[in-house]
Amino acid sequence: MSSPQSPNPVVYPLTDEVQHALGVAKRGVDELLIEDEFAQKLARSAATRKPLRIKLGLDPTSPDIHIGHTVVLNKMRQLQDLGHQVIFLIGDFTSLIGDPSGRNVTRPPLTREQIEENAKTYFEQASMVLDAEKTEIRYNSEWSLPLGADGMIKLASRYTVARMLERDDFTKRYQGGVPISIHEFLYPLMQGYDSVALESDLELGGTDQKFNLLVGRELQKQYGQEPQCILTMPLLEGLDGVEKMSKSKNNYVGIQDKPEDMFGKLMSISDTLMWRYFELLSFRDMAEIAGFKREAEGGRNPRDFKVLLGKEIVTRFHSAADADRALDAFDKRAKGGIPDDIPEVSLSGAPLAIGALLKQAGLVPSTSEAMRNIEQGGVRIDGTQIADKALKVDPGTFVVQVGKRKFARVTLTA
């Protein structure tokens, strides 16, 4: 384990190299704790040429990573490019407990099988942002399972219930009479113990993770380590501009979305939200982004900049050619045209209920979602808007459209 700070630690000079690294670390962050400490860590690293150990933990609670996750992954990549050792930690043990952060009820625990299935593609997806060859990948079951009952009890003795109840979401639930299960107290302890096991110098997370990150800092002190610094990134709002991006809220852009879907979703955000996405997702210089904003305020169409953002993100996860094709397809749809490349679907059972047709064609996940789209005027057959939820569709071949981005050429037989 690393040594705790001595009473009279060496003070390293904050060279131009260190100041640059600190500026990179601070771009777009919500909070950096403690900045002076981290500046010294950077300065020591520069002087000794020993990389910092920088940790990010993600629980595989769902199989997909969306661009909201990449806000913190982008920061990891920036620090990785500065020469530091980044650690991508998959919380296969902590997922068994369930993170209570931001929850007003106990989170249903996942099974080991669900966790393993979700974890399969996590690092593969994260590697679309991180340099995989330079990334240390770990699973917290490595040190959490060997703790056993004895070790878990000893770990639990290092933190008090009073300290746990300082946590905002626990406090609200306790005061509101909403049950808090004992196992939920274990989550921040186990996440904190990850920092001890990995001897991390800096831990990253969303703003909702601040309490958990601070527990890690405290436990490192108790285990005789130099405490990690903490860098929290803002939570990216979803496409609706209200709730944080989440697959469960269907307001997300998946990093494995098709180019046309990814581009179309990004073009759907508000002109105001666009600047937030630029700040947190774009790799462009902040001065350049500020210039874009001035141009928009001066009368230039904000759509021009939204196109630049959309193409940048699609290029990052696909290619520049895919981004160009996605823009062409979007423009064609905007003019009422049909994209050149749409799925061909063959169905039987005519006359077929419209809800079943939309679901079987893969345009909606459920018939209830089909009904909702019809109610909102978002369903068209060969360009004609469908308002009748009881419609039975006769045999034939036709283009079916749901919303602005989903098309299928359906051949329906009896």
Q: Mind explaining what this structure looks like?
A:
The protein is globular and about 80 Å long. The strands form 3 sheets. Strands 1-6-5-2-3-4 form a 6-stranded mixed sheet, sandwiched between helices. It has a 5-stranded mixed sheet with strand order 7-13-12-9-10. The protein has 18 helices and 13 strands. The termini are far apart. 46% of the residues lie in helices and 14% in strands. It is α/β, with parallel strands linked by helices and 414 residues long. Belongs to the class-I aminoacyl-tRNA synthetase family. TyrS type 2 subfamily. This is Tyrosine--tRNA ligase. It catalyses: tRNA(Tyr) + L-tyrosine + ATP = L-tyrosyl-tRNA(Tyr) + AMP + diphosphate + H(+). GO terms for molecular function: ATP binding; RNA binding; tyrosine-tRNA ligase activity.
What is the radius of gyration? 25 Å
Q: Examine the secondary-structure arrangement and name the CATH architecture of the largest domain.
A: 3-Layer(aba) Sandwich
Which percent band covers the strand fraction?
5-15%
Shape: globular
**Fold-level CATH name of the largest domain:** Rossmann fold
Helical proportion, percent range: 40-55%
Organism: Pararobbsia silviterrae
Subcellular location: Cytoplasm
Main location: cytoplasm
Binding site for ATP: 247
Ordered list of secondary-structure elements with their pairings:
Blueprint: H1 16-26, E1 31-33, H2 35-48, E2 53-58, H3 70-81, E3 85-90, H4 94-97, H5 112-119, H6 122-126, E4 135-139, H7 141-156, H8 161-164, H9 168-175, H10 182-198, E5 202-206, H11 210-222, E6 229-233, H12 259-267, H13 271-281, H14 286-297, H15 302-317, H16 320-334, E7 344-348, E8 352-353, H17 354-360, H18 367-375, E9 379-381, E10 384-385, E11 392-393, E12 396-402, E13 406-413
Parallel strand pairs: 2-3, 2-5, 3-4, 5-6, 7-13
Antiparallel strand pairs: 1-6, 8-11, 9-10, 9-12, 12-13
Helix pairs in contact: 1-2, 7-10, 10-11, 12-15, 12-16, 13-15, 15-16, 17-18
